[in-house]
Amino acid sequence: MNLASIIDQHPAESVALISRGEQTTYGELRHQVDGFRGGLVSLGLEPGDRVAIECGTNWYFVVSYLAVLGAGLVAVPLNPSNPTPEMQRALQAAGARALILGPAAKKAVRGLDRASLPDLEVVIASSGVDLDGVLSLDEVLASDPAPVVDRADDDLAVMLFTSGTAGSPKAAMLSHGNLRSNLEQIQQHPGRHQVASDVVLGVLPLFHIFGLNVVLGLTLYTGSRVVLIERFDPSSALEAVERHEVTIISGAPPMWAAWAGLPGANPAAMRSVRLAASGAAKLPVDVAQQIEDRFDLEVFEGYGLTETSPVVTIAAGTDAPRGSIGSALPGIEIRLVDAAGEDVYVGDSGELLVRGPNVFKGYFNDPVATAAALDADGWLHTGDIAVVDDDGYLYLVDRAKDLIIVSGFNVYPAEVEDVVAAHPAVESVAVVGVPHPYSGEAVKAYVVLQDGLSAEEDDIIAWCADRLARYKCPDKVMFVDELPQGAAGKVLRRALR
């Protein structure tokens, strides 16, 4: 079944989306998606073609996403705030044949080199995009409908860029079956069941798997409504929760930390919320306690990753102690193993392995990385270290990789190091993650300058900001005389931490 069909059975008059102050019912959404899907087909796009979507957390994204899936195409959601070089790399890596741009993405296409993107044949934009050969989104939307293309469970639906279990960012391939399976698994968990009467706060970015499938996908699957917020501001988001009587909030720790420390917040603002969930990074225990004290709301943690579509465990609806990520969803197998691949004892730490129908198909055009992540028996090696207690509840304790997680987004040091090293004054660099009270971790760069050349901290940060997404840029740059190295000459990041 094509995942786009999840909107087909809901009452036409029920509200699906609230975006930019406008409501869209399921009947209106189906009509809009039908036309956009027909427009994509009329442009000659064929099943399996990759279509990049840069539209922000808004109506534009939802209609584009469903139309792309419905036409049998592969959606490649991208961060609309990415600088042009990063967008260019993503389009090249995905081999995108089409690009859909919403209002938030206008700046990202400035300076886009179409000559280096031979696969990119179609660009569709909302308005005001200065790029040759751009088609109007409104005109494509007004096309004659085309039928939904039937898809098998193993057919590719989405490619999301992630740092994976190791290495620089790569595109994780998720099938229609992967994404739908995780929706079904979540609904089978007693602590996370969502119903049509729920109102969901959609503040998570839709180019991230948490926002894409847990917030948007589950809302559309259950016939609920989602209030889409493009830019998080603690005060206005809290007002939206109260005004729309939101019942479910899912977010990353920085969101909860912002609300925990918000001056003058109305303690009754979250009285309608029946389920509060945190994921994408570890939620500090003190933040969870502050939310409970201020708003009389308990925030439950969960665990997942892009490669698992994304949810693996949930603490809600269980007796898991605070700080635990709970237990596995129905239909998901987990193991904790030592360095030799043997199962560890209760209370001992081990790498978390995951297996189930929600586990991804691999990394696009990267069989080496795929083989490193997925073993012959179908187990995904997450690289995360966990322990399990006597009651079967899991706790994350460490990561087996150098991956940095900033506000729930993966940052691999090698990617940042490559950009910093290209600065004309830099001789060598090492990047590590350091604790941060709001984002969980922040990126810190240790830089050795070339003899006779100089640079300021702001110079390095600005250099990165022109080439990397904001969350990947160093927050702090330390200039050092040398970097610590092991016997083989490899930089010792653990010494820098």
Structure description:
By secondary structure, the chain is α/β, with parallel strands linked by helices. It is 26% helix and 26% strand. The protein has a nine-stranded mixed β-sheet with strand order 2-1-11-10-12-13-14-15-16. The protein has a five-stranded parallel β-sheet with strand order 4-3-5-6-7. The longest helix has 17 residues, at 26-42. The chain starts with 14 loop residues before the first strand and ends with a helix.
E-strand count: 26
CATH class of the largest domain, named Alpha Beta
- Strand arrangement, largest sheet? 2-1-11-10-12-13-14-15-16
As a whole number of angstroms, the C-alpha radius of gyration is 22 Å
Global structural class: alpha/beta
Write the CATH homologous superfamily of the largest domain: ANL, N-terminal domain
Number of helices: 13
Q: What form results from the Cα inertia axes?
A: globular
Q: Helix amount, in percent?
A: 25-40%
Assign the CATH topology of the largest domain. Answer: Rossmann fold
What number is the mean pLDDT?
91
The main sheet comes to: 9 strands, mixed
In terms of DSSP E residues, the strand content is: 25-35%
| Unreliably modeled segments | none
| CATH-defined architecture of the largest domain | 3-Layer(aba) Sandwich
Number of domains: 3
Summarize the structure.
The chain has helices spanning 26-42, 59-70, 84-94, 137-141, 176-188, 209-222, 234-243, 253-260, 285-295, 367-373, 413-421, 457-465, 493-496; strands at residues 15-19, 22-25, 50-54, 74-77, 98-101, 122-125, 134-136, 156-162, 170-175, 199-202, 225-228, 248-251, 275-278, 299-304, 311-314, 327-328, 333-337, 350-355, 362-363, 380-388, 394-399, 404-406, 409-411, 426-436, 440-449, 476-479.
